[in-house]
Specification:
There is one protein chain. This protein has 387 residues and is an alpha/beta fold. The chain has one domain. Helix content is 33%, strand content 22%. The protein has 14 helices and twelve strands. The chain has a twelve-stranded mixed β-sheet. Helix 7 runs parallel beside helix 8. The radius of gyration is 26 Å and the shape is elongated. It starts with a helix and ends with a helix.
Length: 387
């Protein structure tokens, strides 16, 4: 009897090589291809054959400093769905990634859906990558960052990149576009804005970092983004331009808006935005100015322009250490009956103090409005999901 049990137990013992092909492919889905290559390659011919037939390959060069152990075959190139690459300024790292794109030009990844490129620092990198983006028929997500700090990129380089991405990548639906500069303000090398000509893009989700307001005013147009559903923008420096020629062009699809200001704007700028967003349902506005917390002004905006909004969040941080006092406009959010009666929602107020990098206390205030309908809908969805 004991010997029989030992036989049954020995039959249950399974080695890695005994797994079925289906289980191997399931296992491979948990790894990036760099990890698969460096961990499983050359163990035996069977596993190498499975690696060569992987149906979905996610290549991540952001988290590794090592070269691939194996090379891509034609089948694998056609299976790459996601590619992440950090272009380092360090000479060895830059050479490694430059060599990768020489061996595997981006245009070869014909099934690529998602591309993440960090810190484009030279015109050579820009041209070798940007020129090939329109050749990717399945690319729907792009996250790209340009390093303007001590780089050789010019404004003409950036304009070329913008034109190519917005105009020629026709299948692109989601774009995260960032201009990184370690200085407080991005210096212009030309007087003309980054977007200096009409471009019609079919993007649905756009997150763009570090713009001037006149540049933002340019893209905030239904002629520029006719299909946009969600827009996030970080706006730097006080605008010089005072008129807003695009404010009569409304967005039909935009429902979510996030705008970060780093200067003391006036509500005239916000009004020019809200005139274009009649179907907005949610928004977030952050600023370094306490004037953003103005109950009567926001009541005016929502009653005149933002009739469909069901939630919003306002946040102000006192980076300039002006030691804000409690303002009447701030308390008006709590005392006004408009939010509960006319908008059928609740207002939550918040005050907190955080520390900056030097340990100095930064006061911040926030206001969050949420419609009762949204809360009810969320609870129902959670209940249905649990069942």
């Amino acid at each position: 009897m004991q010997e029989a049990n030992q036989v049954k137990l020995s039959q249950r013992i399974t080695t890695l090589e005994d797994l079925s092909a289906e289980l191997f492919f399931e296992l491979f889905d948990f790894f990036h291809f760099t990890e698969l290559s460096n961990t499983f390659a050359h163990l035996n011919q069977r596993i190498d054959a499975y690696l060569a037939q992987s149906p979905n390959i996610y290549l991540d060069l952001l988290s590794t400093k090592h070269k691939l152990v194996t090379k891509f075959n034609d089948h694998q190139l056609q299976c790459v769905k996601s590619l992440k690459l950090m272009i380092f300024k360090e000479e060895k790292q830059h050479e490694k990634h430059e060599a990768f794109f020489i061996q595997y030009p981006i245009r070869l990844f014909q099934q690529l859906h998602s591309l993440n490129l960090r810190l484009i620092i030279s015109a050579t990198d820009l041209r070798s990558v940007i020129d090939q983006l329109p050749l990717l028929p399945c690319l729907i997500f792009l996250n790209i960052t340009f390093d303007l700090y001590e780089s050789k990129l010019t404004m003409d380089d950036l304009r070329y990149a913008c034109k190519t991405i917005f105009l020629s990548c026709t299948k692109l639906k989601t774009l995260n576009f960032a201009l990184m500069d370690h200085t407080e303000q991005r210096r212009r090398t030309h007087n003309a804005p980054l977007f200096n000509q009409p471009i019609t893009s079919h993007l649905e989700y756009l997150d763009i970092y570090q713009l001037y307001f006149d540049e933002f005013d340019c893209i905030l147009s239904s002629l520029f983004l006719p299909r946009i559903k969600s827009l996030t923008a970080t706006i730097y420096d006080n605008p010089v331009q005072r008129d807003f020629p695009n404010e009569k062009l409304t967005f039909d699809f935009l429902t979510n808006l996030v705008v970060h200001f780093n200067w003391e704007f006036t509500f005239t700028y916000l009004e020019s935005i809200f005139k274009r967003t009649p179907n907005l349902k949610s928004f977030i506005i952050t600023s370094s100015s306490i004037t953003i917390i103005d109950g009567p002004k926001w009541q005016y905006f929502l009653s005149k322009y933002l009739l469909k909004v069901i939630r919003f969040h306002l946040h102000a941080s006192d980076w300039e250490q002006r030691n804000w006092l409690m303002r009447n406009e701030y308390t008006d959010f709590q005392t006004s009956t408009y939010w509960r009666r006319e908008r059928n929602g609740n207002v939550h107020m918040g005050c907190q103090e955080t520390l900056d990098e030097e340990g100095t206390g930064i006061n911040s205030k926030s206001v969050t409005f949420t419609s009762v309908k949204v809360k009810t809908w969320t609870k129902k969805c959670l209940y249905c999901y649990c069942e």
